[in-house]
Amino acid sequence: MESSNMIRILVADDHPILRRGLAEVISGQQGMRVVAEAATGTEVLELYAEHRPDIALIDVRLPDTQGIGLIDELRSRFPGARIIVLTTATGDVQIVRALRAGALSYLSKSVARPELIETIRKVARGQKHIPPQVAAEMAEHAMDEALSMREITVLQHASNGNSNKIIADTLRLSEHTIKTHFKNILGKLQANDRTHAVMIALRRGYLELPNAQ
Fold it and tell me: What pTM did the predictor assign?
């Protein structure tokens, strides 16, 4: 019979080798067991409902998901879900979004094994764990003015190579309004031009590359 103190974990990553490696590392720890492995957002939701693990260790870049949307959906269906994000997706905006959505920790896949295990134990107790490097990344831009949803949308269209006219036509706005948006975007991101703004937005997590790993 399984001990009531056993920490039961769902691991979600679309890379089979990494997922299996995580499962072996975790299950080799005293008091921990991986009860389910998921490769997609859909599988996360289905397997969580089936196994009701203590911890969901997930990458926010899974096929069929919209980044932080998976955390929103999981927490909506299961308000008590304790989530640790383990990902290559860095950037202060992405981190803040994940924590606001309900994640209790945000880790890079380069995290050392002891810190990963200790984070799992802390989160299982209901505690948050923000690594120093993650906290530093958040603090670096804490006083920056955030992009509005409209500005993010405009920048997303620009990242696809669209001209001001195409963006204006698509969003049913005037070209003058689009130019004003870009002026504000460059100022907020301290960017030199549109290309530089897109690069900064990708790095900080305002924009995402599809299924980037």
Answer: 0.84
